[in-house]
From TrEMBL:
Domain of life of the organism encoding this protein: Bacteria
Protein name: PHP domain-containing protein
Source organism per UniProt: Nocardiopsis lambiniae
PANTHER family in the record: EXONUCLEASE (PTHR42924), POLYMERASE_HISTIDINOL PHOSPHATASE N-TERMINAL DOMAIN-CONTAINING PROTEIN (PTHR42924:SF3)
Polymerase/histidinol phosphatase N-terminal domain segment(s): 4-68
SUPFAM superfamilies documented for this protein: PHP domain-like (SSF89550)
Pfam (any one): PHP
SMART domains in UniProt: POLIIIAc
Amino acid sequence: MTRIDLHSHSSVSDGGDSPAEVIEYAVAAGIDVLALTDHDTVGGIASAAEALPPGFTLVPGMELSCAYRGSSVHLVSYLFDPDHPGLTEELRRVRSDRASRAEEMVHKLRAQGVDVTWERVLEIAGAGHEEYADANTIGRPHLARAIVEVGAARNVQDAFDRWIGSGGPAYASRYAIDPVRAVELVRAAGGVCSLAHPARAEGALNGEVPLELVERMVTAGLGGIEADHPSHNREQSRHWRGVAADLGVVVTGSSDDHGSLTGHRLGARTTAPEAFEELVAPATGVPLIRG
């Protein structure tokens, strides 16, 4: 049976491995179809495509950062035209604000005696000032790793809990796209999308994406809900599978792998082939890339 993983990250955003290495790990894990979905960028797709072995399929994608009433909402998006003007403009703004936000958090940390530097955060992110704006995406995990390096946290999760998580002493907010508008932008660019890990919405009152928002996203063209995710327990997965059925969208399953940062878990959750076919059927932006 074809094994499909629709959510993974490389070092172009906050993963631990290069795009080519992600493909190598996917092959070793028995994956046949993989979506590379770095945060707010498609900067790793070309490198990943060059590493495809025969018979392997790459789904060009990204994880789009959204926000709703102070909570984080993520949209895994696939097969859109990366040169679509409306989407390109929003992504440029999102990536620029990510950089400004991270630098602001560095200043806050230093003011509180945590000796991290902006230069080191950029090194960890694999991004110079110029190239970063167009390809690599900086995120809080890069900053968290810098915090761990200087001994101000035990590990990445501790850095979030102690310093840079929502409400933390070094936290700073940033620009993110409204989720309904994000769905509209992806669809206008010929892409399709699934709501990422809906039971893990940072800043939400109960930790979940509100149902009324999901309903509006479906009306705007949302095609799937990532009910099967490593952070979801059995009850949460069952609940969101039910939501997907009620709203008439497909259920996707994904590892949300970040390489060594998440224990190389590609294939930990997968998407059924029939659900994948239904999800991508309306896409007109770019084709699947086959090895």
